[in-house]
Each structure stands twice: as structure tokens, then as C-alpha cells.
Design goal:
The complex is a heterodimer of chains A (about 800) and B (about 325). By secondary structure, chain A is of the alpha/beta class. Helices cover about 40% and strands about 20% of the residues of chain A. Chain A is built from 29 helices and 31 strands. Chain A starts with a helix and ends with a strand. Chain B is of the alpha/beta class and about 325 residues long. Classes of the chains: A alpha/beta (about 800), B alpha/beta (about 325). At the A-B interface, helix 1 and helix 11 of A face helix 1, helix 3, helix 4 and helix 14 of B.
């Protein structure tokens, strides 16, 4: 043992391998390959096309899985469908017991899962052991709780049905948990496809499902690649699609299932800012970078990959960062002393290498950890770029590897401008000891998750998900459960009668006479930025009332009118920052001023839609009530504080989307207009509204009411014209954050398809009819659709 | 392995060991610490993952445990200390591990001893006597240990007394009031005088971090002590409610690193109090290696203030050698 003397001199760590004997035995026993898990059984692998699964750290073959085809997917969906009936009506407590058992069994097999995940994915055992697998168990525990409570906590909601779920390779089992736990808790059944690079822990999970006696068909795992995933998403009997992965694929899925009435949640890419102010705990922030971008080999969608550091401390920060890199350990992921393991595949290594080379060739300076990489395996030395700018490729593109970019800023305003200078909006990390500054940044950054003086904190009790092209929908917490529930009223809506086509004619009409003799001609224009504006094209169309007589003209808005309206809405950003009380006051005032013109609007309703005076009076009264309801909610529909970690407040804030495009139906033209616009603006959004083309005057007559009610210019913009033409422009507009469409099935599909440019959130009626006078045409579901939840993690303690 | 290499492994006298110059201190420079930001949650997260990110197994673990022994300030600071008690402690310091275990580890000739023996001033003479013929230094607490609230002249006199008795290292306690009231100049002046009174004996400044309450205070007090010329900064007396913790140690090491960056001078670190197990020793060694590197894994820059820790380490070493779990009755009592 002379060696001990040598070690005393060098004080090196030496090897500390985690044993993988038990996992190897399991793999060896399944060397013929793994089938799918469908209807509670594993399918056979005989005569099937198999995908080989390798260990990214050394290239050795771990096993094979069946490459799922359309028939496999169909069988899995059928199993899920037939299991849904019983599962969805089980008492919550019964479902809770299953989820609890899954959580317990994962804990009992914790080390097995950790080792298997490390072998399959390449991430260090420290992370699977301390982060991935404990979070998986935590997720099932948390959702066992939701299963118990879902009936009482989500009254008026029911499970969506069969969920098709496609997950990525970076956190294989954790992403499975994020998908399956809430789905099952809410009473859905699932067909899930793991990534073809990392299918193994899902198989072990299926065995746990079997072990706990989960009813057959509730969880189905289909193996395969993108084509298999597409078959799941596109399957006609899937009611809900949940996808985590690249923005590129998210876009494809959005387009693929447009118009299908499937519910969709997307958790996509990111290029999240990591902002360090000069008053931050610098050493703490340096460790933050380690946890941000050198965590999980940088293969993290919410990784703080864009370091923004205040100019005065930049050099010192970079020096400390370079020094810190010297102690990073890269190597065998099963070694307990490794910080960084192997990238998931040779392909990923190539992608990272190519991007990093491009960064260098564009003039960036790459600082890399002085590590000796293992001869075999997909290893990449962690590092960061300096001498890069927002225009650099590496600052713009998600690298998805252990390399950050570092740029400087001078002021908080510049920091936020740089932080938001991205198409993504997943996460942000803000380092400052000044609570005013930190919370100000948290409020202004466009991101679904904000970590103050911390990074990559995750908990089942808090929602996770993005703004902008990082996707929509949340996973975790109360907000996450809604993704697996449907409001009953919305589920049971009847199909609307086919709309009679309406051709807007710009030609003068010799037959028509406008207005009663002697009254002054009125011209309905668009309403943009608080002013009436002639439509860009200079065309108007005749509006026909009861019995076919012309009752006025309205402008035929075109794409430039939409452009102008969106621009006006952009300038009205102050509305979202106004106090909720202030917004409530404006809305109440709107009701007050509208009420003063009751006779005019009731008459117009009769004249335009042909309803009885009684019906017109009812609609007007309902409209006033609705305005008061949203005025009341403006300062009450607020966020919550999640219980996550000790000495943390995790604030779930309801934030407005920004600019919402709203396309209104013909029915109850005044009431439906108000029912859609009011929740949106009550929550602080600005809207560009296209009122019913058949009855536009009820909207255009509102201009003066809006003017007299102190609604700030640009908060409500109204463009009249052909709904679906304007809907397409709105849905395609990159500055528009969400679109609500109430109209035909075709129009709904058009909106969903057109939304994939910036992956804006859409809410479409799919040609279904709402009862605008009914109580379900207002309520929290409308408010929920008007906000996105931002989770702000604020650790505290001096 | 040549003799120079082996000497690194020995618990040899600081002055012999020291390859670097003693910290001469600097002017009082509040701008180095007054605006310091220390985020508690971030500090705790780093401290918590430090020891989950690293581990040492088998022969490496054995070597690291031996290293820990060479860095221990084997301590007795009790009201019932006597010459006999101190003598027994010193005997253990000379031979901290049973000879057959050392033999099995291949370290029979490596002169493994603890880093020092640490006692009260009136016990110094007993310790010096008991350690005659070795290079193990005697460290003495002083300056009204543990509260440090006796008048300054008496505190300085106590230092001179201990040095006169043969102490080669003086573990002073700082006046916590000066930190809690942010009276940096007074704190600085006192430590400068203590350093002067210590003469050639090395000065270890005990910050009593459990009393300082906040991590910012810990950083500031560390910086003032180093500016005043402390050779070591030390966490605790062992008598506060909370003694050495990893987060507090991390903050002190960061201060130490920053001081080095600003002044070019080198200072040592000594956690003390509350550390009882071999696992604790490993945790602090990992902390030192990760945050400061190899030089701070040697007894001239790193000490563990502990008493019962040695017994646990010895048991672990015997287990490594024999493969059987050990009983403390088979090891000599400290």
C-alpha cells in the first residue's frame, strides 16, 4: 500500500464508481429487446424493427427497443380509450392510492432508476441520484394529492380523455413524471413515447405500474422515433397532446393538429438570461452559472445560457468563472465525483461542436475548462464565450450543451432589453441583493419561470413553462393541472349551425337608403389607438339589418389596419402595469357610460339582429352585468404563493399575455363582444378586436363609450371587416401573444395553423356554439385564458 | 518518494513547514468588505452540494483520513484540565494511530502526528513538556477565551504569557461587540496589537461566527482579521451555540481568497467545534480542495480544531486495513 503515501502528496480524489451490477443484470435479462407497454403488458419484439440503445459515455449497447408504428400507436390509444371509462370515474381517493404507490415504489427503486438513467442518458450519477429521481418521486406524491382533491378543487372540470405525450431525452424519467402524474391525477389515460435515445427508464417505470397493479391501459408506453411521435399526436382518438422538446418540433405538432379540437401544451426551447448585477453575491452567482449551464451537460431547456453581467464587475466575474472551471470534473457519469457526464449522443456532440466552432469563427472567445476528456464517449469540455454580441449565432441559437455566452450591460433597463431580446421566454435568473431591483427585473422579464439569486430550482408544487416560443401551458402545481382538465361547459358545447356566408361588398348599393330622412350620415371607421381611423384600403361595406335594409356602412379592414392596430396596442403597454383597482375603475365607468346609452344600443340590437325588444333588453342587461363582473374580478383574480422549498416564497403571478387578438361571433353581437374583450382587458391585456362582420355597428358605436370611460388609447382597438381574413393576419402577427377565435371550425383551424409562427397561445371555438346569455359565458375560465402564470422563486434569509 | 514529499504528510512545525511568507496584513481597508454581498441561500446551496459532488473511496479515503489527522489541532479546553489530562492528550498527538494500522497503511516511517495540540495558557507548559522531542507545536487559546471581554491589556498580557510558556501558535478570540456594532477600526487595532504580542508565534483569529449571526458579518470580520495580520482565521471557540458549519466556512474561504487576490498574501483556515466524525473531516477537506486547492490541504494552511474526531478516524482506518468494523476500546484514548 505504498500508494497511500503518494495520495497524501497529490490528494487526488481517485475513482468512486457507482456499481451498476443490478441494472446490468436487468439489461442482460432483456437483451432480446423491449416491447411496448400496452394495455398492461409488454408486446413482443419478434420480427420487429428494433432501435439500438447505447450508453453515451462509452458507446456500449444497452439494449434494443421496438420501433413503434401506426398500428402500435393505434393499439395503445385503443387501450387507453377503453381504460379511460373506468379510470376517469374512479373516486379521486382511489386514483390517489395508485399515484402514491407509484411514488413509493420509485423511492424503493431509487438507486436502480438513478443508475439506469445515468447509463442511458450520460448525465452524472450525482444528478440522477440527488435531483432527477427524487424529483420524480416528489412529482408523483404531489399529484397523488391532486388526485385526492381534484373533484372538489376543480369543480366544473373533468378529465380531457386520452393524452398523447411525447417527451425528450434530457430528463427522461422526470419528464415522464411531469406528463403522467398530472394526467393520471386528473383522471386521464395516457400513451407516452419516450425519446428513442433514452427509452429505458420508461420501461422500468412501466414495470412499476405493473407492480403496483395500475389498471391495464391507464399508462401505455410506445417506443419509437419522431414518426411514432407524429402518429401519437395525429391519432384521431387522442384528445390532448403534450410535448416537451425543441421549438422546431413543437411548431410541427401545432401545425399537424390544427383544427383537431385537441388540447395542446408545449414545453419548448429556451435561451434564458442569467443576469448578474454589480451588487450581487459574486461567488454565489458563479456557483449559479455552474448550476445553470454546467448542469446536465447544458442539455437543459431552462438553462441560464446567456450570462448578462454588469459592465463594472464583468472582468472580475469572468476571472472567477474561469477559476471555477478549473475544478469542474468531466468524465465517467457513473463516477460519483463527476460534475459533467457525456452528451446524449454523437449527434448532439456534433451539433454542440459545430455551433461552438461557429461562435469562434464569428469572433467569440471561448473559455473552456482545462479538463482531459475520456478517449471514448460523447464528452465536451464545459465553457463560456466572451466577445460575443446579441447578433452572434451563439447568443441567439440554443446550443443545448455546456457552453454559455457572456455579454455586459450598463443599466437595469439595458439588462431587461437584452434579456428580452430573444424569441424564447422560458426562464430567467436574476442576481442582486437589492430586492427592489430583483423584483423589478422579475416583473419585466418575459419568462415563465424566474429565479432570484438561484437557478434551475424545480418543484412539483410550482408551475413550469414558457412565454413566447418556449411554448404554452404549465407543468406542476395547480396551474399545471388545468392542462389535463376541460371545463365542462366547453366540453359539451353543441356545434353551431353552418354560417351563412357573408360577402362584404365594397360597391355602392343603388337600392339602399341609409338612415331615416333628415339624420346626419354616420361613418363607422376602425378604432385604433383611441382614435377613429379610416380603413387603409378605403373600402366600406353595407351593413344590412332586419329585413335586409341597409342600416349603415362599416370599413373593410385589411392587413395594414391590423398592423396599425397592433402597433397602437404595443404602445399601450402601461395598461398591464396599471393597478388592478385602476383597471376596475375604468371598467365600471365603461358600464356606467354604456348604461347611459341603453336606448340607443337596444334599438340598434333590434335593428341589426332582428331580435325582439325584450331580447335586446335582456342582452343589454346581461352585457352590463358582464362588465361589472370583470370590473369586479380585475383586482381579485390574482396569483398565489406556492409551497415549494423552505425559506422560499414562490410567487405564481397571473400576468397578461400582452396583445390578444379577438375574433367575435355573430350571435349576440354586443354581449359576445363584451364577454370576450372584458376578461382580456381586465387582466391587463391590450386587444385588437374584430367584431361580428354582420353586426359591426354594435362595436363601432362603442367608440365614444370607450372614449368617455377613460380606457387608455390603444387598449381596445377595433377593426371591422372579414373575420377569417383578419384572423389569419392576427394569428400570424409575431407581436400578437394570443388569439381568441369564436367562429367556424375552418376558421379555428386556420387560426391554430397560422399561430405557429411565434407559437402564440390560441383559444378557438371549433365551430361550437356558446350560450352568451348563460352563466357559463363568463367566469374564471375566461380569466384563466387571459393570463399566463409566471412563477418567481424568491429565496430569503440573511 | 523522497523525503521532501514525505514531509508534506507530516504534522511538522508550522515554521519549518511554511513555504510561504507570513501574512503581514494591510492597512484597514473597509472598501474590501463593507459592501460585500453574501447571499445566504446561495451559500447554503453551494455548501450542500459540495459534499455530494465529491467523495473519496478505498485507499484514497484512507490517505485523506491520514491527511486529516495531520491537520488536527488536538484540543482540550475544559475547566477540569490538568497536567495529567494534557499529557495524555499529547501522547495521542504523538501517536494518533495504532502502530500496526500505520504499518499496514505503509506509513510506519512517515512520522504521522496531529497538526498541533491546543490548550489553555496555563496548560501550555505541560504540553510543551509532553511534546519534547517532537516537532508538534503547542497552540494556546488566549485573550479571555472564549468571550474575549476581559480588558485589552490583560488579553495582550495573556498572549505574552502563553508565548513565554512556549506556545508557538496563539488562538485569539475577537471582540464580537466590535463586529456587531461594525466598529472595524477598533477591531482592526486590537488584532494588530495581538499579532504584535504574539511575536513569532502564529496568530489564529477566532471569529466566533455563531455569535456574528449573519454571513455578511462573517465575511467582514474575516477580512478585518486578515488585514490586521492574522495567520489563520478560525470559525469558533467550540463554546458558541453554533460552531463550525460548511456555509460559514465557505464564506470565510471566499474572504480568504479575495484577500489573497487583493493583497497577494496567504492565510490559513481552521474550522473548530462540532466536528466529530471522519465524515466531517472529509467534508472539510473537500471544501478546502474545491475552494482553495492543494496548498490548503496541508497543516501549515489548514487545521481542524477537534478532539473526538480523531477517534472516529482511527476506527475508519482500522476498518480499511482489516475489513472489520472497529471498536474504540481498541484504540488509545486521547
Amino acid at each position: 500500500m505504498g500508494q497511500i503515501k503518494d495520495i497524501l502528496r497529490t490528494m487526488e480524489y481517485g475513482p468512486a464508481p457507482e456499481s451498476n451490477t443490478d441494472v446490468q443484470v436487468w439489461l442482460d435479462a432483456n437483451s432480446q429487446g423491449f416491447g411496448h407497454f400496452i394495455n398492461g403488458k409488454f408486446t413482443t419484439t419478434a420480427n420487429r424493427d428494433l432501435i439500438t440503445v447505447t450508453n453515451p459515455a462509452n458507446g456500449s449497447v444497452l439494449g434494443k427497443v421496438v420501433h413503434g408504428n401506426a398500428a402500435d400507436v393505434d393499439a395503445a390509444v385503443k387501450a387507453a380509450r377503453s381504460a379511460f371509462g373506468k379510470w376517469s370515474v374512479l373516486p379521486g381517493h382511489e386514483r390517489a392510492k395508485y399515484l402514491y404507490a407509484i411514488a413509493r415504489h420509485i423511492q424503493k427503486r431509487e438507486r436502480f432508476f438513478s443508475v439506469l438513467e445515468t447509463m442511458d442518458n450520460g448525465k452524472p450519477i450525482r444528478e440522477t441520484r440527488d435531483i432527477d429521481i427524487p424529483l420524480v418521486a416528489r412529482h408523483f406524491y404531489h399529484h397523488a394529492g391532486w388526485a385526492e382533491m381534484v373533484e372538489t378543487e376543480f369543480e366544473g372540470y373533468s378529465p380531457v380523455g386520452v393524452c398523447g405525450q411525447v417527451i425528450p431525452w434530457n430528463f427522461p424519467l422526470l419528464m415522464l413524471a411531469w406528463k403522467i402524474a398530472p394526467a393520471l391525477a386528473a383522471g386521464n389515460t395516457v400513451v407516452l413515447k419516450p425519446a428513442e435515445l433514452t427509452p429505458l427508464t420508461a420501461i422500468a417505470f412501466a414495470e412499476v405500474c405493473h407492480e403496483v397493479g395500475l389498471p391495464a391501459g391507464v399508462v401505455n408506453i410506445v417506443q419509437g422515433d419522431g414518426t411514432t411521435g407524429a402518429a401519437i399526436c395525429g391519432h384521431k382518438d387522442v384528445d390532448k397532446v403534450a410535448f416537451t422538446g425543441s421549438t422546431e418540433v413543437g411548431r410541427i405538432i401545432r401545425e399537424q393538429i390544427a383544427g383537431s379540437e385537441k388540447k395542446l401544451s408545449l414545453e419548448l426551447g429556451g435561451k434564458s438570461p442569467f443576469i448578474v448585477f454589480e451588487d450581487a453575491d459574486i461567488d454565489g452567482a458563479v456557483e449559479g452559472v455552474v448550476d445553470a449551464i454546467w448542469f446536465n451537460q447544458g442539455e437543459v431547456c431552462c438553462a441560464g445560457s446567456r450570462i448578462l453581467v454588469q459592465e463594472g464587475i464583468a472582468e472580475r466575474f469572468y476571472n472567477k468563472l474561469r477559476k471555477r472551471m478549473e475544478t469542474l470534473r468531466v468524465g465517467d457519469p457513473l463516477d460519483k465525483t463527476m460534475d459533467i457526464g457525456a452528451l446524449v449522443s454523437a449527434g448532439q456532440l456534433k451539433r454542440v461542436t459545430t455551433l461552438v466552432e461557429q461562435g469562434k469563427s464569428e469572433g467569440g472567445t471561448l473559455w473552456q475548462a482545462p479538463v482531459k476528456l475520456p478517449a471514448k464517449g460523447n464528452f465536451f469540455a464545459p465553457g463560456f464565450f466572451t466577445d460575443v454580441d446579441p447578433a452572434s449565432t451563439v447568443c441567439e441559437i440554443e446550443i443545448f450543451g455546456p457552453v454559455a455566452t457572456a455579454t455586459t450591460f450598463r443599466t437595469p433597463d439595458e439588462a431587461i432589453a437584452l434579456a428580452n431580446n430573444t424569441k424564447y421566454g422560458l426562464a430567467a435568473s436574476i442576481w442582486s441583493e437589492n430586492i427592489n431591483l430583483a423584483l423589478d427585473m422579475a416583473a419585466r422579464v418575459k419568462a415563465g419561470v424566474v429565479w432570484i439569486n438561484s437557478t434551475n430550482l424545480l418543484d412539483a408544487g410550482a408551475g413550469f413553462g414558457g412565454y413566447r416560443e418556449s411554448g404554452f401551458g404549465r407543468e406542476g402545481g395547480r396551474e399545471g393541472l388545468y392542462e389535463y382538465l376541460t371545463a365542462d361547459w366547453e366540453k359539451r358545447l353543441p356545434l353551431a349551425k353552418a354560417e351563412q356566408s357573408l360577402k362584404l361588398s365594397a360597391a355602392p348599393d343603388g337600392e339602399a337608403k341609409v338612415g331615416a330622412g333628415g339624420s346626419i350620415d354616420r361613418t363607422a371607421k376602425n378604432y385604433v389607438g383611441g382614435k377613429q381611423a379610416r380603413s387603409d384600403g378605403g373600402y366600406s361595406y353595407s351593413v344590412f339589418g332586419k329585413g335586409g335594409q341597409v342600416i349603415g356602412q362599416a370599413g373593410i379592414g385589411n392587413r395594414k389596419d391590423i398592423r396599425n392596430a397592433v402597433e397602437a396596442a404595443t404602445k399601450a403597454g402601461g395598461w398591464g402595469g396599471a393597478t388592478a383597482h385602476n383597471r376596475a375603475q375604468v371598467l365600471y365607468y365603461l358600464g356606467e357610460n354604456l348604461d347611459a346609452r341603453r336606448a340607443e344600443f337596444e334599438a340598434l340590437l333590434v335593428e341589426s339582429t332582428g331580435v325582439s325588444t325584450k331580447a335586446a333588453a335582456d342582452e343589454f342587461e346581461a352585457t352590463l352585468r358582464r362588465i361589472f363582473y370583470y370590473a369586479a374580478q380585475a383586482d381579485k383574480y390574482d396569483g398565489s404563493v406556492h409551497s415549494t422549498k423552505s425559506r422560499h416564497v414562490t410567487l405564481a403571478m397571473n400576468e397578461p399575455f400582452g396583445i390578444v387578438g379577438i375574433l367575435c361571433p355573430d350571435e349576440n353581437p354586443l354581449l359576445s363582444f363584451v364577454s370576450l374583450v372584458l376578461p382580456a382587458i381586465a387582466m391587463g391585456n391590450r386587444v385588437v378586436v374584430v367584431p361580428s362582420a354582420r353586426h359591426p355597428l354594435l362595436a363601432t358605436n362603442l367608440y365614444q363609450v370607450l372614449d368617455t370611460s377613460d380606457v387608455p388609447a390603444g387598449v381596445v382597438n377595433i377593426i371591422t371587416g372579414e373575420r377569417d381574413v383578419l384572423a389569419k393576419t392576427l394569428a400570424e402577427h409575431d407581436e400578437v401573444d394570443a388569439v381568441w377565435y369564436v367562429g367556424s371550425k375552418e376558421g379555428s383551424a386556420l387560426v391554430e395553423r397560422a399561430s405557429c409562427g411565434n407559437l402564440k397561445t390560441t383559444w378557438v371555438s371549433n365551430g361550437r356554439q356558446r350560450d352568451w346569455l348563460g352563466s357559463k359565458a363568463q367566469g374564471k375560465e375566461y380569466l384563466r385564458k387571459a393570463v399566463q402564470v409566471k412563477n418567481i422563486w424568491v429565496p430569503y434569509g440573511e | 518518494m523522497n523525503t521532501q514529499d514525505i514531509s508534506v504528510a507530516k504534522g511538522t512545525h508550522l515554521a519549518v513547514q511554511a513555504a510561504h511568507a507570513r501574512n503581514t496584513g494591510t492597512e484597514l481597508k473597509p472598501e474590501w468588505f463593507e459592501d460585500i454581498a453574501v447571499n445566504r441561500s446561495a451559500t447554503e446551496r453551494r455548501a450542500a452540494t459540495l459534499t455530494t459532488r465529491r467523495t473519496v473511496k478505498k485507499e484514497y479515503q484512507a490517505a485523506w483520513l491520514v491527511k486529516a489527522i495531520t491537520c488536527i489541532d488536538l484540543t482540550t479546553l475544559a475547566g477540569d484540565d490538568t497536567a495529567g489530562r494534557v499529557q495524555r492528550l499529547c501522547a495521542k498527538a504523538r501517536r494518533p494511530v495504532r502502530a500496526d494500522i500505520l504499518e499496514a497503511l505503509g506509513l510506519a516511517d512517515a512520522n504521522i502526528t496531529t497538526g498541533a495540540v491546543c490548550v489553555y495558557p496555563t496548560m501550555v507548559r505541560h504540553a510543551v513538556k509532553a511534546l519534547q522531542g517532537t516537532s508538534i507545536p503547542v497552540a494556546s487559546v488566549a485573550t479571555g477565551f472564549p468571550a474575549g471581554l476581559t480588558p485589552l491589556p490583560q488579553r495582550l498580557a495573556e498572549i505574552r504569557y502563553a508565548v513565554g510558556e512556549g506556545a508557538k501558535e496563539i488562538d485569539i478570540v475577537i471582540n464580537r461587540e466590535q463586529v456587531l456594532t461594525q466598529n472595524w477600526s477598533e477591531l482592526y487595532d486590537e488584532i494588530v496589537q495581538m499579532r504584535e504580542a504574539s511575536g513569532d508565534a502564529h496568530l489564529k483569529a477566532i471569529l466566533a461566527t455563531g455569535d456574528l449571526n449573519t454571513l455578511r458579518n462573517v465575511y467582514r470580520a474575516s477580512m478585518v482579521a486578515m488585514q490586521a495580520g492574522a495567520d489563520f482565521i478560525k470559525t469558533s471557540t467550540g463554546k458558541e451555540e453554533v460552531n463550525a458549519t460548511l456555509p460559514v466556512s465557505l464564506v470565510m474561504l471566499r474572504a480568504l481568497r479575495d484577500f489573497g487576490e487583493y493583497s497577494g498574501q496567504i492565510v490559513g483556515f481552521k474550522p473548530a467545534g462540532g466536528m466529530k466524525t471522519a465524515k466531517d473531516a472529509m467534508n472539510w477537506l473537500i471544501l478546502m480542495k474545491e475552494e482553495l486547492g492543494l496548498p490548503w490541504l496541508q497543516p501549515d494552511l489548514f487545521r481542524l480544531g477537534a478532539s473526538s474526531m480523531l477517534g472516529d478516524i482511527e476506527r475508519q482506518l482500522e476498518h480499511y486495513v482489516t475489513g472489520r468494523y472497529a471498536a474504540s476500546s481498541r484504540h488509545a484514548l486521547a
